[in-house]
Amino acid sequence: MEALNHRLFFLINAPAHPDALMVSFARGLADELIWLVPLLLIYGWLWGNEQRRIAMLEATVAGLAGLLANQVIALVWPHPRPFMVNMGHTFLRHVADSSFPSDHLTLIWSVSFCLIMRKHFRPAGIAVALAGLPVAWARIYLGVHFPLDMVGAALVAVMSAWLVLRGERLLIDVCYRPMFAAYHLLAKPLIRGGWLNE
């Protein structure tokens, strides 16, 4: 499996002297595209109805659960990044920690899979999932991840989303109702002014 992982990595990883524009483009995808996820979640909460807010909360919890699972996996099975074993070419600064699974993709896909599993929000979830593909490519191209790190992220993301949706009722009672009450109290002037949804 590791041999396949390495072969796929060399197929995607940048050459020793890549085009500067391509590297800049890949860096933008690798580090900046992920910010669309919190923006989507915040937008969905501030300008959504109750159904949408619950979906945004579930997606957020799924993302956080996925990241927590990654930390546990890294403790149990630390896997070096390509540059830590002098493999390929690296064009993105990154701390020398475990590469498996990818945190970026876990967050993106945990959110997207959680939305996909709810019929009403499936189109948005598919769009977020597709946005994760160029992020995955960029992080391999720039030499900070292996391809199987992305497969691991997908598996963690599916499990995180599934577990969160299984506990939906508890999540609504424990988290959503107090959060909505706090939001309604803090944002009351903006709600009254029509700037935010009630």
Automatic annotation (TrEMBL):
Keywords tagged on the record: Membrane, Transmembrane, Transmembrane helix
GO terms under cellular component: plasma membrane
SUPFAM superfamilies to which the protein is assigned, alphabetical: Acid phosphatase/Vanadium-dependent haloperoxidase
Keyword Transmembrane among record annotations: yes
Ranges annotated as spanning the membrane: 20-43, 55-78, 148-165
Residues in the signal sequence: none
Alphabetical list of InterPro entries matching this protein: PAP2/HPO, PAP2/HPO_sf, UPP_Pase
Residue ranges of domain Phosphatidic acid phosphatase type 2/haloperoxidase in the record: 51-165
Name of the protein described by the UniProt record: Undecaprenyl diphosphate phosphatase, putative
Organism placement in taxonomy: Bacteria, Pseudomonadati, Thermodesulfobacteriota, Desulfuromonadia, Geobacterales
